[in-house]
Amino acid sequence: MALRLDGKALSTQLEQRLGNLIAGHLDRVERPPGLALLRVGDDPASGVYVANKEKACARVGVLSTGIHLSAGCSSDDVLHELQRFNTDPLVDGILLQLPLPNGLDEGPLLTAIDPDKDADGLHTLNLGRLLKGEPGPRSCTPAGVMALLRSNGFDPAGKRAVVVGRSILVGQPMALMLQSAHATVSVAHSRTRDLAALTRQAEILVVAAGRPGMIGAEHVSPGAVVVDVGIHRKPEGGLCGDVRADEVSEIAAALSPVPGGVGPMTVTMLLVNTVLAWCRRHGIDHGLDDLIS
Ligand code: NDP
Fold first, then answer.
1. For residues 39 and 67, is the Cβ–Cβ distance under 8 A?
2. Which of 6, 125, 163, 263 could cross-link 115 (Cys pair, CB 3.0–4.6 Å)?
3. 172: Cβ below 6 Å to ligand 1?
4. pTM of the model
5. Which pLDDT score, from 0 to 100, does residue 292 have?
6. Atom number in ligand 1 closest to CA 166
7. Cβ-Cβ contacts under 8 Å for 198 (sequence gap 6 or more)
């Protein structure tokens, strides 16, 4: 039976570390780290995600400020809020919750965020910093996957890694992070021929295709470490991932569950990016280097 890559337990530990770090410096800094959360429209899933992020902030002592704009607002309305947060000295991190309603183009809005306050690590400059191995906020989901691998003793160095999916949100930065950790990386996408032949070569397999249950026993070699990024609501209720966990857990050395795997780590890395920005602004020695890929 595969080892469970428990993102919930790791995120609880990391929250404790962040909470202690903040508490240890509040006397001198005199203000907590601040995260601004901007939500546009009424996508119900986004509402749940933002609420979870606000709760996580409260647990570690990050002050969250939520703004909710209506679906009919203009790009200028969103820009106005982002610029207000960019110049607010009490805000260290800014998150624009995706997806945006139809008619709003996320590209220019994400780029309007001050790159040093980019809590999601999706600004063009920060993706470039990742590519060049320069410091900066990292994309939360792949950074969470790296932390999950490392904390369970799976060092990617020298390993053959396959990432299924090439989105800017997950697949591409995931491949870059694995590569900079010295894995030999292949990236699969919807035009990949014979996906199973490729994924069977993986010692580390990260699946972020957004296709419920697409990866099964035939895609995985014995002893592989499998991380399931996908998250889907099942028609009958409950959640599932891109991996058929019942089959793969019989073969893999380790598997991340859905829920309780990558999801909580994504939220925790949002906090990490915010706390790191606060530390940098106040010259605090953060001791979080193990979380910066
Ligand atoms: P996207 O839809 O943006 O990207 C999906 C990628 O998978 C694309 O590159 C696509 O290829 C590829 N793909 C689709 N079908 C196949 C296939 N049959 N074979 C191989 N590759 C395929 O999704 P995201 O990257 O945004 O998200 C992926 C999943 O991760 C979703 O389920 C999402 O909900 C989840 N997610 C979970 C998070 C968490 O915190 N747990 C955070 C972010 C996302 P192509 O480029 O050719 O179209």
1. yes
2. 125
3. no
4. 0.98
5. 84
6. 9
7. 162, 186, 188, 192
